[in-house]
Amino acid sequence: MKAFLVIVLAWIVCVAAQDDKKASESSSDSEIKIYKRLIPADVLRDFPGMCFASTRCATVEPGKTWELTPFCGRSTCVQNDEKPAKLLELVEDCGPLPLANEKCKLDTEKTNKTAPFPYCCPIFTCEPGVKLEYPEIPNEEPKKE
Predict the structure, then answer these.
(1) Angle at the Cα of 58 (from 57 to 60), degrees rounded to 5?
(2) Edge-to-edge strand order for the sheet containing 35-40?
(3) Cα-based torsion angle of the residue sequence 119, 124, 129, 135 in order, rounded to the nearest 10 degrees
(4) 65: DSSP letter
(5) Distance between the two ends of the chain, CA-based, in angstroms?
(6) Running DSSP on this structure, what letter comes out for residue 57?
(7) Which residues have C-beta within 8 Å of that of residue 57, sequence separation ≥ 6?
(8) Which of 35, 8, 39, 31 is nearest to 21 (CA)?
(9) Continuous H helices in the chain
(10) pLDDT in tens, 65-86
(11) Quick check: 105 and 77 in contact, CB under 8 A?
């Protein structure tokens, strides 16, 4: 069981690192970047076949999506194909903020924090020829037991 969780978490870190790299190589700073990661779902003992959406304080059936308000993002309850089946949460959000850069500023006129996801993600404007850089997510190797 622990080995399975370690492998899933290592896979999530790898996917997130690849998504970060792809996002930082994007050609347009104003395009919306959506980061996805799969994490173990929160499950309440009284509702074992459902994900617990803490931002809504509600249970959610597999296959259903909910907004992460007040955060900018959404999640989907996912049931994997393993025996016994496990519930996972597919989280989609704006990802990490870019590294500080004096030549790039948060565009407060284009950013709408109260808009529905993904239109609530921050939008940055950079001087010509300048690209945003994003923090590296460390690639952790699965621990051997």
Answers:
(1) 140
(2) 35-40, 87-93, 73-79, 65-67
(3) -100
(4) E
(5) 11
(6) T
(7) none
(8) 35
(9) 2-24
(10) 999 999 999 999 999 888 778 9
(11) no
Between 122 and 32, name the one with better pLDDT. Answer: 122
Pairing of strands 87-93, 73-79: antiparallel
Nearest to 36 by CA among 5, 74, 67: 74
How is residue 8 written in tokens?
């899933």
pLDDT band at 87 (very low <50, low <70, confident <90, very high): very high
Q: State how far the Cα of 91 lies from the Cα of 98, in Å rounded to an integer.
A: 19
142/13 Cα distance (integer angstroms): 10
Structure tokens of 33?
């970047």
Q: What string of DSSP letters covers 108-128?
A: TTT--TTSPTTTTS--EEE-T
Residue located via tokens 């284009």: 110
Please give the Cα distance from 24 to 135 (Å, whole number): 9
Compute the distance between CA of residue 135 and CA of residue 95 in angstroms, rounded to an integer.
10
Q: Which of 91, 133, 102, 110 is nearest to 30 (CA)?
A: 110
Q: Are 113 and 72 in contact (CB under 8 A)?
A: yes
